[in-house]
Each structure stands twice: as structure tokens, then as C-alpha cells.
Amino acid sequence: PADRAPKPVGGREKLQVNPALADLLRVLLKAKTESAGVAAKLIASAADLDAMAGGMRDVAAVSGWRAEVFGEDALRLCEGKIALAAVGNDVKVVPLD
User: Which residue from 49, 43, 46 is spatially nearest to 66, judged by alpha carbons?
Assistant: First the structure.
């Protein structure tokens, strides 16, 4: 029974990551960091992106200067408020509001 199953180590439950959303976040991160001239790893780690795709919003990428470069649009992408489009060789953010 589920009530007798072992608890996750460290008290944290495993996130249900949406792999397609995680991939979209990776594309958005790459597009945003290329245009800003910043290394992607300074904004968000793969674990941060997976956490966001799993519903977590308490990651460094959504606060401070990281939010300005990537986090605000990342949250909007997770909420279905924007889409990504390929325009020539660029990836553009398309508002859906």
C-alpha cells in the first residue's frame, strides 16, 4: 500500500517533470542568453529547468537579474502565456495573451 511505501530520502518528493516543457525552457534559455551575451549556466542549471518544468517556482532563475534575462518569460512559458517561434535563424517569443 502507498501509505507503507518508503519516503523519499531528504524528505523531498520526486517531481513529475514534463520533458517537453523542460526542452522548451532549454530553447528559451539558449535564445535569451545568446541575445544577452551571458552564459546559460549563469542563469539556470539543468536541474533548475527540470524543477520549473515540474511545477517548482522557487529557483534562482526567477529572481533578480536572472528574472529580467530569462525568468519572467520562463514563467510565462510555463503558464501558457507565450510561445516560441523560429524566425529565420532566430527564436522569437510570441505573446499569446
Answer: 43
